[in-house]
Amino acid sequence: MLVGKELLDKARSLSNCPEDEIARGCGYVGPSGRVLRKSFYRALVEAKGYKLRSASGRATGRSSRGRQAEFRTKVHGNGNLLIGHAYTKRLGLEPGQEFRIDIRKDSGAINLVPLADKSK
To answer: The pTM is what?
Structure first.
């Protein structure tokens, strides 16, 4: 990911391209191929000489630990409830694992009960 003068120069050279293409050209792409727009825009602002502060009031820097898991989510418009990679990773869950969903109406809790691995 480009920063500083290199970022400004590259972005300027791609200024006739769509925003996502400019961000990609400057290296702001995540491991999944998703464009990291917020990181790109923050880097542009900082390259212009503005020091940004995080929500906690601290100045941001290259040593940031990235997006942190909040353990909060909401039901989406389509009715789905997304847990997300940060949470499954923290629990040590692997792709393909299966669970029974146990709903506790009285407390509003949702429990994931691992199913036995049938491949073993």
So the answer is: 0.46
DSSP 60-80: P-TT---SPP-S---B-TTS-
Residue 104: beta bridge partners?
109
Token pair recorded at residue 114: 């691992």
* Signed CA dihedral, 74, 67, 36, 50: sign only: positive
Are 21 and 14 in contact by the 8 Å Cβ rule? The answer is: yes
pLDDT in tens, 72-97: 788 888 998 888 887 888 888 888 89
Tokens of 108: 């509003």
Q: How far is it, in rounded angstroms, from Cα 86 to Cα 92? A: 10
Q: How far from 9 is each of 6, 45, 47, 53, CA to CA, in Å?
A: 5, 13, 10, 24
21: left (phi over 0), alpha (psi -120 to 50) or beta: alpha
Max Cα–Cα distance, the chain, nearest Å: 59
